[in-house]
Amino acid sequence: INTEFMKIVALGVTITIASGDSGCHRRPEADCPVGAGKQMYPYHPACSPYVTSVGGTALTNGVSQNPTEPICTGHSVTCATGGSEVTATTQNQLAEISSGGGFSNYAPRPAYQAAAVAAYLQAAGSGLPPAKEYQAANRGFPDVSALAHNYYIQASGSVGFVDGTSAASPVWAGIIALINAHRARLSRPLVGFANPLLYQVFNQTGGAAFHDITVGNNRCTEDGCRCKDGFPAIPGWDAATGLGTPNVGRII
Known about the structure:
By secondary structure, the chain is α/β, with parallel strands linked by helices. It contains six helices and ten strands, in the order H-E-E-H-E-E-H-E-E-E-E-H-H-E-E-H.
């Protein structure tokens, strides 16, 4: 499947993939591995080095101050206009999902993220899971994140709210589309494979092109927090929220 991904991005198409909703374990709480020999099971294709893997965040201390978007003014909906973003997790019922992330079991770490991941492994130190549970030398994911909590939806005449990195991933697809539209106006080629560019922009802006997520971890699954090991969110890239959420103006 990686070969097919390579063909697609060579055509100028960017592939965004949800990083998963059960933290770093990829499995329901009842099946969380415990004891000797346990290993994490990274999500595929989210851990492919040829896709842009998108994790999830949630808002704490949310505020709503005179939102002007039509969805917020024309419906019985309270829209957040501010708050603090943290790693999406089911811990303390903060969200209904936990941001997927970790390390591939098979794909080597690509050059475009080598420095960022190495810095994370060194900085996180003793806060990381036991080394035997994951392949630290391999591809780390997610690459980036977006809000993954309380999305307003309408379906079959009903209104509801949903969580999921499958909601966060299309956010980044939309941002890439805006970037491509901007590049087209300047007669520049489409982004295509976005990952090298994202890490480059992070470095060139000193991280200012992203909102760095430094609170939380992804040890919990969708079903609870029986699993005790997970990856912490810290300054810079991390295996819970990647480079962070987009500061669209700076990215474009």
